[in-house]
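User: Just a sanity check before I run the rest of the batch. Below are the structure tokens for the first item. I only need the designed sequence back.
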């Protein structure tokens, strides 16, 4: 029985291998898409791990700072630092934007951190692969390697130029954009400070408001203008807890007494994976389902064609007394062999092509095992049509042909 299937494969070896190669490319795309989803989840978890935070304190009734905008006063950390169980706190800002580098744009998440603090403070990159951390209050940056920056490069963020003094790795946003760390004051200016024209227009609108045209309102007008030209806001306060402290109890205390929204690590994972990545996950799942159907159709068509090409041989086998079970096993083995070749080609293709994708592709061994058995199951089901047709062949066709 095995020799029968093997001899038939050798008889049409070129067609069989070429078909397996084409199927392998399709399987490779399927594995890469699964790897893209795994990479998105890993990016979200890496973002949380690299932040070094146990709690995220954000604007009330928001899902910030990653899923929604959030704005807090930058002195909010003082009251949080006095809460029981809190070991460290740090202001932080996040802004995804286009950064200018030598005449071209780089998509990145700009993170504002307080320079001069310990590198173990929340929000700081946990390690560097080159250079040093931020030590000055302005115009220095630490960049992720994926951004393409190198030590000594200059970048433009809004109206200022920054020099790269350190490089880190796998510091990415939930969408996979590389992170750039700059001093907090510079990040606040980039995110919240209006440009000169906007400030000028705001002052004109304020001066033209009848409310401020009464005598004695000059001080109020000046205060409004100062508020328009400066910002003391941050997106979140990252909190590290003392060892052994329950995160949920501290979060509940902050919610009650400080009137902020507080997210624990578990809640933040749910926000990133369950909300930000949910739509992409459904799209990838639908795409994988379509690829599975297409793969099954291709295998079914190929096995059916190969079976049709040897109708007379099957009739001869039946004429000499070969059992239907033997003929069905031959066709099934051919389908499984086609699937095995396709999966091997697909796995090699996915490993080779994964690093070329702009998104991070994480190929998990468990997905490969599941994919292998799924391919074998699809090939087995796809062979049913050819088996059914072969079993209906009349032995008389061997004589009549």
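Assistant: Here's the designed sequence for the first item:
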């Amino acid at each position: 029985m095995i020799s029968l299937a093997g001899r038939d494969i050798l008889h049409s070896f070129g067609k069989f291998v070429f078909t397996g190669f084409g199927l392998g490319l399709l399987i490779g795309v399927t594995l890469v898409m699964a790897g893209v989803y795994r990479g998105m989840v890993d990016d979200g978890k890496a973002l949380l791990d690299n932040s070094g935070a146990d709690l995220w304190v954000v604007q009330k009734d928001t899902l910030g700072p990653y899923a929604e905008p959030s704005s807090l006063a930058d002195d909010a950390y003082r009251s949080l630092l006095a809460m029981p169980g809190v070991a460290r706190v740090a202001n932080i800002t996040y802004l995804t934007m286009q950064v200018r580098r030598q005449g071209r744009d780089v998509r990145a998440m700009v993170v504002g951190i307080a320079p001069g603090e310990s590198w173990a403070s929340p929000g700081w990159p946990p390690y560097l692969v080159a250079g040093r951390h931020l030590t000055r209050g302005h115009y220095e940056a630490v960049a992720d390697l994926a951004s393409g920056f190198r030590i000594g490069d200059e970048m433009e963020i809004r109206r200022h130029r920054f020099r790269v003094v350190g490089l880190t790795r796998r510091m990415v946003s939930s969408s996979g954009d590389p992170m750039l760390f700059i001093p907090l004051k510079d990040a606040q200016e980039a995110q919240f400070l209006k440009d000169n024209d906007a400030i000028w227009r705001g002052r004109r609108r304020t001066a033209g408001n009848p409310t401020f045209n009464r005598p004695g309102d000059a001080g109020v007008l000046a205060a409004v203008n100062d508020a328009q030209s400066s910002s003391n806001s941050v997106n979140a306060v990252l909190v590290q807890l003392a060892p052994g402290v329950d995160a949920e109890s501290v979060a509940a205390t902050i919610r009650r007494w400080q009137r902020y929204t507080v997210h624990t690590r578990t809640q933040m994972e749910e926000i990133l994976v369950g909300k930000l990545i949910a739509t992409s996950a459904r799209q990838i799942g639908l795409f994988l389902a379509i690829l599975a159907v297409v793969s099954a159709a291709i295998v079914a068509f190929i096995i059916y064609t190969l079976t049709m090409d040897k109708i007379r041989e099957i009739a001869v086998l039946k004429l000499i007394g070969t059992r239907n079970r033997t003929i069905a096993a031959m066709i099934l083995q051919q389908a499984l062999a086609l699937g095995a070749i396709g999966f091997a080609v697909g796995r090699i293709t996915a490993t080779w092509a994964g690093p070329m994708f702009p998104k991070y592709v994480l190929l998990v061994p468990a997905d490969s095992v599941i994919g292998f058995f799924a391919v074998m199951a699809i090939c087995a089901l796809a062979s049913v049509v050819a088996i059914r047709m072969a079993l209906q062949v009349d032995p008389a066709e061997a004589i009549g042909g």
